[in-house]
Amino acid sequence: IMSDEESSQGDDTGGMFTTDAILNDEVEATMSDAATAALLQARKRAKLSSKRSTKSGRSSSSSSRTRPVVKLMVTSVSRSYSEPWRRKPQRESSGTGFLISWGEDTQQPIRIITNAHVVRNATTVRARASFGPHVVSCQVEWLSLPLDLALLRITQGDWNDFCKGWSFDVANGDGSNAAAAVMKSVTDPASNGNNNVTKLLTLSTGLPKLDENVTCVGFPQGGTQISVTRGVVSRIDVDSQYVLRIQIDAAINPGNSGGPVFDEQGQVVGIASSHLRGAGNIGYIIPSKIVSNFLQMCKDNNEVKVEDRFSGLGALVVQEESIEDSKHVPGIPNLAILGSQTLESKALRHNLGLDELDILGGVRIVGSLNNNNNDSFHTGDRLDGDDVLLSINGIPIGMDGTIQLSETRPDERINFRSLVTCQRVGSKVTLDVLRKKERKELSVSLNMSRFLVPQYDDFDAIPLYVVVGGCVFTPLSLPLVSEKKSNKSTSFSRYYRDQRSGNEQMIVLSKVLNDEVNVGYHGWKNLVLKSVNGFEPKNIQELVDVIVRKMEGEMMNFRCTVVGEQDADYVICMSEQEVIHSENRVLQRHMIASWCSMEAISKELRDEVEKNEPSETKRRNAYHTMMDMRHVLERV
After folding, report:
1. pTM (2 d.p.)
2. Which neighbouring-strand residues pair with 392?
3. 3-class DSSP string for 136-198
4. Which end of the chain is more exposed for a tag (fewer CB within 10 A), N or C?
């Protein structure tokens, strides 16, 4: 049985040879000049195709490429942001991954790498071989949602079955010599001709060239077996987060995500990640450079703290009973700036003093983050507004904000921020800066992006809520916006790139659960909360604290505003007694267990409740309604 690549070679070269054999000189002599020229051109193309196929076959056979690729069958349960008191129905999906060497673990020296979106919120992950009916269970060991990468580990109970199914000869039943078997399969020359030995894949150290042939392997929709598609590198660019990405025209469809993309030498140049909807053959892959950076952070056990992920709200956000085994690496690093401005204007360059120093490149920094409330966000040197950034680590920046892709590829340019996003969080970069017409050299330590509007579910976002009089208040996040399923651009998009300096959140009125207590406000939604009875809570925990401890008077007044109309107040005014009397009715009608999420209650408030109510059972019941919490807190 021939492999896919060998089969295609046989079809192309064999068929052409048969056609040539029946064409003798006498037949050719009777052909017209145009027909003869067409025949010669067809022969030339066939020979060229045969040479390419032979060269590709020598570098890496189809079998050696596809054997380490696995199909991932995932069961996941996601949380709802539009109704944050419940979870979504169970969902089944599939993706692709591939085996890599992991020498840091002497007991299980193999891992599976894939996209983070393939295994996000997974309850079970099963890996199926591409060459046989071998299936093993996996655990998500490391995640990077910003980079869309994940590292999986074979479960301990399935490790021996995995070694047997993938032909890693493990003599000991406990798998103690697995590392030696893996290394032998990778390095032993005797196994090169054996198609039954799994050869682990290696990552390319560089970027592929434009118009270079690439092969995408995976398990896309439309079938159950492995699929191979081919194309070329179309473009090297950055995504919306300024992270390097590669565009190819090989077909990438749902199910391909997480699969390897090979160059002509059989090395992995990237991981299939996404495709552009509504466009033909525009797919994107994560370059091997970014993948290697992620793997190195995993090897160094570079785990991001919970406090750094969830708006500084601390470990309350992730309860002990819900902590998963998977760990997160830090997010995307940045220069702690609000943005940059290109300097193609001659007048602006003259005003900044660039002409006097005969400087041709650079970008203007429009502003830096206000870190007065959080000194840990950035230490050491920093960029200021009106600075002109000339170079990063000695690489000059053009006036259009681009840099050379590399020294060997000077004609290709890319956004300058790709120099920052390809670094690790905590690393230092050297900046050449023009400040007030004087050149300075700054050493800046890169830190993780902390967005005012959280971007990723379970990384910096979690569904938090407070229900008061049927009004549902929740922190604004991208998962919340995406759940609205609106194709129109939202007015909140102006805040998506803003960075926070502390633990502030943007609290919004998500919806109103219609009831007699909130007549007059039915249908209200997507309003930004400004104040509650004069208090201005900066996050969801302060909102709960205000409601249960600081409310005075007979009325509850929530002042809200529409994005872009900060001077226009919309007031939700409800009687406090009516809100309390309607609380159980509203919660039961919508099957809501508690008036607020447990993570929305601050540690200080919990300590006070525990102090006033020693009984654990009564204390748990007290969290269910606003009225019960007030009663506990009012005790002397």
Report:
1. 0.83
2. 395, 431
3. EEEEEEEEECCCCEEEEEECHHHHHHHHHHCCCCCCCCCCCCHHHHHHHHHHCHHHCCCCCCC
4. C
